[in-house]
Design goal:
heterodimer; A: globular; B: 1036 residues; alpha+beta; Leucine-rich Repeat Variant; Clathrin/coatomer_adapt-like_N (chain B); membrane (chain B); golgi apparatus (chain B); AP4_complex_esu (chain B); protein transport (chain B)
């Protein structure tokens, strides 16, 4: 099960966040800071999965932007890892070369895609179902 | 690139014709000029957090003004909402906008409504009160003829919806399952999935419809229904075995490429769908040969097809391997799966290696030979620069630990432990080490040293069970008495050595353990003396220190976290000379110390230390605060070295040194696996005798108990061993009424907290007679244990009294006898026996006068709420001098109440025909009549629907109960509720009010709030129980 989905840049600015279990706003900021810190501390030779409290973090870096997914221990890390990439490919197609600012600007588009209750397996079909324009 | 996007995009116009100007990147880039755009760019340009805060606060205050202005149009509101979402995402509170989000969803046109719904689903959480305001809007939109509105309503329901309001929308959503548009059907399934997650009972009746969704011609609808099935099968796989064929067929079609190519990801057909199906199959085939046979073919095909070198096929393969090893085994498949794992583990790609290790960890118990095959890789991973890989390797080693390799593995774990700083990792690892040490320790010295390391590192964060179990082990001992003695001696000696070290700081828990073992604290004498001679402040009593604390700015805070210090009524009694008292009896510390701890309650270890408790530590710490934790690892190292040296001699000395070391490590790690390596497909039985396992079996416990009863003078250790049986004992006696053993239970807090009872006579007595126990324990945050009667000479009187009337009733749990009234001739004490079917009250009259009592009669005043019946008990014809007579009454409750008084009087005649009367009263609580109700989750579901009376209430949990299981445990222990099941953050409990009124409790946790929901056939019972629950939750 996915617990949260984050897009954070190297400076620690959150570009997108979605929590599947309620977390207080104050705790979110702390969690996001810690998550990005632990992602930044990893090198290329290290694997893309991190233990963080009782979840696993699965992250991928695209330029200065980190996409981090927090899951519980029943999840298949590699499936999530590829899911992140799939998601980015979809964005890239949609924006014809997606950039970090697109993400933050089209926040609402992204949220539109999170239909599937912490399960990635629906997302693609649902992606972009809702029209983002004119926001 | 993903074809799905295109498909989705082409499908869009049909649904979204309304949004004319929309679509695509052009429009996207154009709206960068909007106000959100400038906010985003403004924030991006900032360099410091402080500036960001300033900017956002500014933004928020302007937003606040705009949203509350009456002139604000819905269009503007929508624009504001988007910015609010952004601000809140950055961590700034935007709660003033919540209500406007709801309004927007209610009133706006399509797009505005869409933003309103989105904002609601991001801002609110399930138990937020504003959410109720959304229900009407959702109902209206579900009935709309505009498909987009229906879609939006379904989307929001599938994300967030108040549970109590499900019935309001359920029929509407059920209808949507038959809708002609697949997108509506799919969203309806997802909405129902949400309901299933939050209120499974409410969607039970639509299971048949889920089956239809599973067979839907649209792949999306089918895929959506898999979420529900995965969940339901996880809970109860036996109910869905008949669907195995369908899942197999679907998987076959997916693997065979029968789905539209749009579902391909990097030319792999619907990988995430495959994974989902494989998980379902794994659950269905577990321990079920017939079902498993149905899926062998498709699993084989999946393994074969997933040969493409791409990450996503690895993900599928991993899931396949998992499934192959979960279901009833088939050697051919196992072989292929093993080969697959091999490929992963040996891969140079780090992510794949990780996956391989994880798979290996999962299968290793079924097939230890795999570990042997990959032993060199595993050794390499142990020294991998990536801590995550190391960690996973340790997890693997943990699974293959046996008596022969335990020393090496534990050493590796300790090494890792010393490097890690993260609390979660420490807690987890420390628990594992303690478990392995208990199970497989080769000798006493190693065991104690390892546990010392555990206590030093795990300190105050580790699970309280660890010290508890450890102490229990020390106390209980094993089969061999001399060995037990050695173990204890060794423990005490090792603590003395540890404490002799200078400038060292030990965690609270560790000190608690030490001082429990040597309760006289004699080992601190030198310290104290030395400390004083070096000018350390002498001991000051608590209140004095408190005062100083106030006046002194910088005082060290010694309070360990998580310990609650209930204000202590005993504080005053604390001897200011506590330490010197300890020193006085230090001569035979080990002996006396243990004897005295006789009266200590083992279960209360975690609350062991009160405010005064760590005083000695304060003394010893006055020197240096910052000392590092030295771990007595030498002996562990030595062990390893020895093991290695032994192997060394048999090794050929031609390899390079490094290579050789690895080989050696391998041989010491994987020793013991070879002999068991004949593949046992059904998993290997754990045949290793658990050396340090505590005796928890009923039989063992009982025989032990009997022996010690006969052997009242046996050493203090064995009396302790009685003590340690307590909790297992309780559970078992409930079922073992037939046994007539002479045993008494002092009232155990496991079952009823002392607070909930009105009498605590023995506790009082014991705190008196154990005054020589060092001041440490005088504080009442230390729970005092009541020893079994047989070993407590100091309560001989009570015990004889008890045993005389106990013969009949020992099978049940009862409270301690408490004197309720007396005069110069007689004394009356009473106690409660909580029988399964009633409450039995026993009054016993003791004749103190030495004169013969002619007759004694007891009469109970009639009471409104209960029925009292005399039970023909043991009636002595004549009550002789200094002897006792008891009366038994069974009490049945007629009407629920919280607390009532039962009163009556005793009348008696003395020899000289002088007659007298003595009145008494006893408090009865509702809890005396509550018994656990053991039913299944299914029965719970049925009963739940059949009960009309319900009460719902949110209770705030204290920190110590923050997690659901601990909160439920509290309820189980204190209210005697039976825990039926815990599902995620929900728990089901049941109890009955005697004679047979059931009451069900459904608990759910949000953050630190526990939502209690009672249902019963009796109208008042839920309220009474709720009151008790609140009392318990607040009390602890």
């Amino acid at each position: 099960m996915i617990k949260f989905f984050l897009m954070v840049n190297k400076q620690g600015q959150t570009r997108l966040s979605k929590y599947y279990e309620h977390v207080d706003i104050s705790k979110r900021t702390l969690l996001e800071t810690e998550v990005i810190k632990s992602c930044l501390s990893r090198s290329n030779e290290q694997c893309s999965f991190i233990e963080y409290k009782d979840f696993k973090l699965i992250y991928r870096q695209y330029a200065a932007l980190f996409i981090v997914v927090g899951v519980n221990d029943t999840e298949n890390e590699m499936a999530i890892y590829e899911f992140i990439h799939n998601f980015v490919e979809v964005l890239d197609e949609y924006f014809s070369r997606v950039s970090e600012l697109d993400v933050s600007f089209f926040n609402t588009v992204f949220h539109g895609t999170w239909q599937a209750h912490s399960s990635p397996y629906q997302v693609l079909v649902l992606a972009l179902e809702d029209d983002p324009t004119s926001v | 690139m993903s074809d799905i996007v295109e498909k989705t995009l082409t499908a869009l116009p049909g649904l979204f014709l309304q949004n004319q100007p929309g679509g695509g990147p052009a429009a996207a880039k154009a709206s960068f000029s909007s106000r959100l755009g400038s906010l985003v760019r403004g924030i991006t340009a900032l360099t410091s957090k402080h500036e960001e805060e300033k900017l956002i606060q500014q933004e928020l205050s302007s937003l606040k003004a705009t949203v509350s202005a009456p002139t604000t149009t819905l269009k503007m509101m929508k624009e504001c909402m988007v910015r609010l979402i952004y601000c809140e995402m950055l961590g700034y509170d935007a709660s003033f906008g919540y209500i406007h989000a709801i309004k927007l969803a209610q009133q706006g046109n399509l797009l505005e409504k869409r933003v309103g719904y989105l904002a609601v689903s991001l801002f609110l959480h399930e138990s937020h009160e504003l959410l109720l305001l959304l229900v009407n809007t959702v109902v209206k939109d579900l009935q709309s003829t505009n498909l987009v509105e229906v879609c939006m309503a379904l989307t929001v329901v599938s994300q967030i919806f108040p549970r109590e309001m499900i019935p309001a929308v359920l029929p509407l959503i059920e209808d949507k399952l038959q809708h002609s548009k697949e997108i509506i059907r799919r969203k309806a399934v997802l909405a129902l999935y949400k309901f299933h997650l939050i209120a499974p009972n409410q969607v039970q009746h639509i299971h048949i419809k889920f089956r239809k969704a599973l067979c839907d011609r649209d792949v999306g609808v089918m895929a959506a229904s898999l979420h529900i099935y995965l969940r339901m099968i996880k809970e109860n796989s036996s109910g869905y075995k008949d669907l195995t064929g369908s899942f197999v067929t679907i998987l076959k079609q997916v693997v065979g490429g029968k789905l539209p190519v749009d579902f391909n990801y990097h030319s792999v057909p619907a990988p995430w769908l495959q994974i989902q199906l494989l998980r379902i199959l794994g659950l269905l085939g577990k321990d079920d040969q017939r079902t498993s046979e149905l899926m062998y073919d498709v699993l084989d095909e999946s393994l074969r097809r997933a040969e493409l070198n791409h990450n996503v096929t690895y993900a599928i393969l991993f899931e396949c391997v998992h499934t192959v090893y979960s279901i009833y085994p088939k050697s051919e498949l196992l072989e292929k799966a093993a080969k697959c794992i091999g490929k992963f583990v040996l891969s140079p790609k780090i992510n794949l290696k990780y996956l391989g290790l994880k798979a290996l960890t999962y299968v290793i118990q079924q097939d230890p030979t795999l570990a042997l095959q990959h032993q060199m890789t595993i050794i390499e991973c142990l020294d991998h620069p990536d801590p995550i890989i190391k960690r996973e390797t340790l997890e693997l080693l943990y699974r293959i630990t046996n008596a022969q390799n335990v020393t090496v593995i534990v050493q590796k774990m300790l090494e890792y432990l010393h490097q890690s700083k993260e609390e979660y990792v420490i807690v987890n690892l420390v628990g594992k080490i303690a478990e392995l040490a208990e199970k497989y320790a080769p000798d006493n010295a190693w065991f104690i040293q390892t546990m010392n390391a555990v206590f030093s590192v795990g300190g105050d964060v580790m699970h309280p069970d660890i010290p508890n179990n450890f102490l229990r082990l020390l106390a209980e001992g094993f089969d061999d008495e001399t060995e037990d003695q050695q173990l204890r001696l060794y423990a005490v000696q090792s603590y003395l050595t540890l404490l002799d070290m200078e400038n060292v700081l030990y965690p609270q828990r560790f000190l608690q353990v030490m001082s429990w073992v040597d309760a006289s604290l004699s080992f601190l004498d030198d310290f104290v003396a030395e400390g004083l001679s070096q000018g350390a402040a002498p001991y000051k009593p608590h209140h004095q220190r408190q005062e100083e604390k106030l006046s002194q700015e910088k005082v060290l805070n010694f309070e360990p976290y998580g310990l609650s210090f209930s204000s202590s009524g005993f504080t005053g009694r604390q001897s200011p000379a506590g330490i010197s008292l300890g020193s006085d009896i230090s001569g035979n510390s080990a002996e006396t110390g243990l004897k005295e701890t006789n009266s200590l309650k083992l279960e209360g270890i975690k609350k062991l230390w009160g405010k005064e408790g760590y005083l000695p530590k304060k003394e010893s710490k006055t020197g240096d605060e910052s000392g590092a934790l030295p771990i007595p690892q030498e002996s562990i190292m030595e062990n390893v070295d020895q093991a290695i040296t032994k192997k060394d001699q048999s090794q050929v000395l031609t390899q390079s040194k490094e290579e050789k070391e690895k080989q050696l490590l391998a041989s010491s790690l994987f020793v013991g696996l070879g002999s068991e390596s004949t593949v046992n497909l059904l998993g290997k039985a754990d045949t290793v005798s658990h050396k340090f396992r505590r005796k928890s079996k009923v039989k063992e416990a009982k025989s032990g108990e009997t022996t010690s009863t006969h052997n009242m003078t046996c050493s203090s250790f064995s009396s302790l061993s009685n003590v340690a049986y307590e909790d297992d004992y309780y559970l078992n006696t409930l079922h073992d009424r037939g046994d007539k053993e002479l045993k008494t239970f002092s009232l155990n807090s496991e079952l009823l907290d002392s607070e909930s009872l009105t009498e605590l006579p023995l506790v009082e007595k014991f705190s008196n007679c154990s005054l020589s126990t060092p001041s440490l324990f005088a504080d009442n945050s230390m729970e005092i244990f009541h020893p079994p009667q047989s070993t407590a000479a100091s309560v001989a009187k009570e015990s004889s009294l008890a045993s005389s009337f106990l013969e009949e009733t020992t099978e049940y749990i009862h409270s301690n006898a408490m004197e309720i009234c007396n005069n110069e001739t007689i004394s009356v004490s009473s106690y409660k026996i909580w029988k399964d079917d009633c409450l039995l009250m026993v009054w016993s009259v003791t004749n103190k006068s030495g004169l013969e009592l002619k007759s004694a009669n007891l009469e109970i005043f009639p009471a409104e709420n209960f029925k009292v019946t005399e039970q023909p008990g043991c009636c002595l014809p004549v009550t002789e001098a200094e002897s006792t007579r008891s009366f038994q009454y069974s009490v049945q409750i007629e009407k629920p109440f919280t607390e009532e008084i039962l009163s009556g009087f005793i009348s008696y005649h003395m020899m000289d025909t002088h007659s007298a009367q003595l009145e008494f009263s006893v408090n009865l609580s509702l809890l005396d009549f509550i018994r656990p109700l053991k039913i299944s989750s299914e029965d719970f579901g049925k009963l739940w629907l059949s009960f009309a009376n319900d009460v719902k209430q949110n209770v705030k949990m204290s920190e110590s109960q923050a997690a659901l299981p601990s909160a439920l445990k509290t309820l189980q222990q204190k209210l005697r509720l039976h825990i039926i099941e815990i599902i995620g953050n929900e728990g089901l409990l049941a109890c009955q009010l005697l004679p047979s009124i059931p009451c069900l409790l459904h608990c759910r946790v949000y953050a630190d709030v526990l939502v209690l929901w009672f249902r019963s056939s009796c109208s008042t019972l839920p309220d009474y129980l709720l009151y008790q629950c609140q009392k318990v939750m607040e009390g602890s």
